[in-house]
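Hi Y.,

Following your request, here is the sequence exactly as I used it, all 305 residues.
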Amino acid sequence: MPHDDSEPVLHAEGLTKRYGRHTALTDCTLTIPRGRVIGLVGPNGAGKSTLLQLACGLIAPTSGTLRVLGAPPAADATHLAKVGFVAQDTPVYGTFTVAEHLRMGARLNPAWDQGLADRRIAQVGLDPRQKAAGLSGGQRAQLALTIAAAKRPELLIFDEPAAALDPLARNGFLQNLREFVSELKASAILSSHLLGDVELVCDYLIVLCASRVQIAGDVAELLTGHHRLITPRGALDQLPADVEVIGVEHTDGHSRAVVRAARLRPEAAWTVEPVRLEELVLAYLRRAAGTPAGRVPATAGEAVR
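Below is the corresponding structure, written out as tokens. Let me know if you'd prefer a different format.
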């Protein structure tokens, strides 16, 4: 049955997950449209894996609501088949050959596309007779990606799948991810510490820090709605009320700020410049962590390596 394009791929309201006294995700409210490649970034412990596990139905929320593809996560076998998940360690079975992984996928998934699986395995140079234990990290990631995509899901979810790969293998993985999303006309959520990966393939961004969503939206719109503002020190106090200062760094008698504003007219004392995605993300991470500009916690720095 064709899916309803007007139904969000993910809709959360007040979504919260606690483990004992520890709150992993706090009051998350999101509406993400279909057909997007969503980048989920933030430091370790921000709640990224928790959000993805909730979306897959692997864990249940403490409070709030979540709908994925118009239904509760893992609502039934039909809904499970609509979601492909690749975990951080790109799990495969070491004693199984590549071909055995594909046969298992065919048995477990009613919409399995064997032609797609065979074509992609050949494209990335995997030997069907090779056992997974003998594959490189990049090859295991490609196998896990192929299995997830051959389900022909409506949503692909990746929890830092390329984190341990070398740059060449990671680039190949991301290129294939983008090709699968296009071929399947699917949506995808990619969690990553590496903002360069997100910039390469994603058109929608969610920034998580300290268990909360700091900002979410279309990448192009976020960049248009934020600016780099350079002013004499003290001049930021004179900004219009509709200009929100996200982060600021003071140097050599000037203030260099990332600000959010629909429109920002240059004035004699101001210089307005486009903001880069990296500095926009860092500004929100620093603000959430309560870190002064120019100093980034090690975990936050990983988000833009």
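Confidence is low (pLDDT under 50) at residues 293-305.

Thanks again,
Q.
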